[in-house]
Write a structure and sequence with these properties.
Elements: E1 21-24, E2 30-33, H1 36-56, H2 65-87, H3 93-109, H4 113-117, H5 120-133, H6 137-153, H7 159-175, H8 181-198, H9 202-216, H10 232-249, H11 254-264, H12 277-297, H13 306-318, H14 326-344, E3 351-355, E4 358-362, H15 365-378, H16 382-388, H17 390-395, H18 404-410, H19 415-441
Antiparallel strand pairs: 1-2, 3-4
Length: about 450
Amino acid sequence: MPPRGNKKKKAGYPTRSHKLRVILLPGGRSSAEQSDTDLLDDTASNVSSSSDLRSLTGEEGFPPPDAIDETEAQEDFEEKLRDQIDGTTQKSANGRKSCLAGLRQTFSRKVLPDFIDNRKVTITDCVERCLKKGKGEEQALAASVGSLLCVQLGSREGCEEIYNNLKPVMITIMNDKSAAATARAACAQALGLICFIAAGDMEEVVDIMGGLEKIFCVAYLKGDGTSPSHSPALQALHCAALSAWTLLLSIAPPSKVQEFVRTHLPKLPQLLQSDDVNMRIAAGEAIALLYELARVEDEDFLGQDLDSLCTRLKQLATESVKYIAKNDKRKQRSSFRDILRGVEEAEAPNDTVRFSVEEIYLDSWVKKRQYEAFKDSLGAGVNQHLQENELLRDIFSLGAPIDVAAYNKQNKISRFERVTHVHNSAAFKARTKVRSKQRDKRTVTA
């Protein structure tokens, strides 16, 4: 039994004890009955104890522990991101490259338009500084971060200003033959993407396409019909420029498309002889896109020497030479089967991209080139951006972002349906086994 005097106190009703009495409780613990003033405070704490408990479960407007943890995690994440932004201004080149790599990974895998919008001027200045003062890898990383900055902001106010600030620096590096080929290729790719997103008018798009043409036209055959010899790094530069040019071709005005059909369609098949598999594929996709756009105006468009072109495309779609790596051969065959159907039969691609609970259909070369451009820039984060990024959802006509949790709850299969399905599957399996045994026992009768 509990010791005398250790009466249970009702919440909200202070006791009338005026003296301090120490009572020994079982286990050697002590309890104090305090004066009226102190007991009012004690009573208030007892009354609020239930609300304290409720706050742990999220009742009465108090945030649950999970929400508190998520808030703290978000604050820590944003703090690290701010440190990375500040780190791009440090003196150490390796430190700057590390911070740029961190920003590139974060911007590609997470959708952060509000956070970035509040710091777009600072980030743009950091990217521009690294492009101007950095070398090689640092410039390539800065160009990637600059393109992702525009992907994050999309059509928000200020995106065109970012493009106008970064464009001249990227053009300078892209055309600088003394700069590292990797930096030039990254600037060519980033320039095409940010122009696609933020260019103010079609004249601007055509101007950028002209600059990209000067880069990849060097890969055309020489006057004597021989292929030029370029290092793998320069071939990657030409491929990046051609891919960026093809992206902008997907939004070019019809009048310019006809001009490109006349000037580039006869020459692009020359690039199918390139030693680089990526260049061959980029050239094939540019050819297929030109045919698709030309047939919008003229359904019977055939181009020049279609038979010879289709023969070459068939060779690439079935090529099995040993000096090409297996992965490259697989990628080349798959790509040129689609390209051949597009050129020879005017058949559009038929690819489906699934992400979360949604999917998009790449049913034209225009959509395919645009999707591939964002995929190359975002990498593994492309699905997350397709799900949440307003820019990508607008480009691919996906509408407003979907609440995945609400969608799953609405379309969740009931327990009864699941049990019924399991029962039917088991019954079907049992019937199949019985019928198999009966078939084995049957004999042929005259």
